[in-house]
Amino acid sequence: MENATYTALTRQSGLMNEMRVVANNIANLSTTGFRSEGVIFAEHIKALGPNDPSLSMATASVRETLSAQGTLTQTGGAFDLAIEGEGFFLLETPSGERLTRAGAFTPNENGDLVTPEGYRVLDAGGAPVFVPQGAGPVGIAPDGTISAGGQPVGQIGLVNPVNLLGMTREDGVRFRADDGHEPVFEGRMLQGFVEESNVDPVLEITRMIEVQRAYELGQSFLDKEDERIRSAIRALGK
Predict the structure, then answer these.
(1) Is 194 in contact with 74 (CB distance < 8 Å)?
(2) Where are the domains of the chain?
(3) pTM of the model
(4) Which of 12, 96, 99, 232 could form a disulfide with 175 if both were Cys (CB 3.0 to 4.6 A apart)?
């Protein structure tokens, strides 16, 4: 197979990866706390010989999580929280600590603040956040301090991954930070709000059309290249 075909195939593979990412973004338009993704294309060039042209291959295997602020929607829920600015909520899951921007929480039967899946919310030090029952109205300050009946009872932590580019997405709205995380003091929480998905539907539809057209163009090139090779083989076989 000639170099031109190899190059076109790597490009087609990258475009397929980008289409999957775009489709996933569109599917999560209404997912609370969802962060949209983009694909990073990289070019790898290899010298084939002193008198030969170089070979260029494109890859698109790296996904980039976009950090733009999503729309904040008021719910009125006492334990619904939205982050304004930087930071993630810290969760305890069976697989370890995870980060999220989805702040629809509720106390469980033990008084621990949990996600809809039952994962406990942690403070900045990694301890579960406890909300006493029957102690009066619950208020949550912008710094995450929880008060019940006017008395402070705990504080929800905000963290950021040490390596933002090394953060790995898991299960839609949760992220794994293998390099660790650190407290964030710039972000603030809003009680009674949730952050909607930061996906821009117009941008994603535009991207989908562009990727589809680029893929069709690449497929047309491969079809013509295949016909050229077949014609050359037929001519040489005569």
Answers:
(1) no
(2) 3-67+199-237, 72-195
(3) 0.79
(4) 99
